[in-house]
Design a protein that fits this description.
The structure is a single chain. This protein is mainly β and 123 residues long. Helix content is 0%, strand content 50%. The chain has strands at residues 3-6, 10-13, 18-25, 32-39, 46-51, 58-60, 68-73, 78-83, 92-100, 112-113, 117-122. Strands 2, 4, 5, 6, 9, 10 and 11 form a seven-stranded mixed β-sheet that branches. A four-stranded antiparallel β-sheet has the order 1-3-8-7, with no helix packed on it. A hairpin with a 6-residue loop joins strand 5 and strand 6. It starts with a strand and ends with a strand.
């Protein structure tokens, strides 16, 4: 059974930083491209960042480019999202996702999803 478990998010002030992690199990992690998406209240889920199976290629939404960094550690079966210079508009539930290698390194669609973690940025 595939499981993607995000770390606890939290409340942070605008301008602050937060790192999310996503622990994967039940799959061969290096066979999957990975990504982060988010959903703000009243809005549709949107793409944030993606990384290919090796970590050699990354893609970011324009709204987070230069502030967020996606990375992965295949030895630990873990995906990360380092978020810096956070803004109130980054407030959302953040989801970790996995897609077949070679098919999802640029973003959705994804085959597996985590349960999500709340990130709240106060002004």
């Amino acid at each position: 059974q595939v499981q993607l478990v995000e770390s606890r998010g939290g409340l942070v002030q605008a301008g602050g930083s937060l790192r999310l992690s996503c622990a994967a199990s039940g799959l061969t992690f290096s066979n999957y491209d990975m990504g982060w998406c988010r959903q703000a209240p009243g809005k549709e889920r949107e793409f944030v960042a993606a990384i290919n199976w090796s970590g050699g290629n990354t893609v970011y939404a324009d709204s987070v480019k230069g502030r967020f960094t996606i990375s992965r550690d295949n030895a630990k079966n873990t995906l990360y999202l380092q978020m810096n210079s956070l803004k109130p508009e980054d407030t959302a539930v953040y989801y970790c996702a996995a897609g077949p290698r070679g098919e999802s390194w640029y973003g959705p669609p994804y085959r597996y999803w985590g349960q999500g973690t709340q990130v709240t940025v106060s002004s």
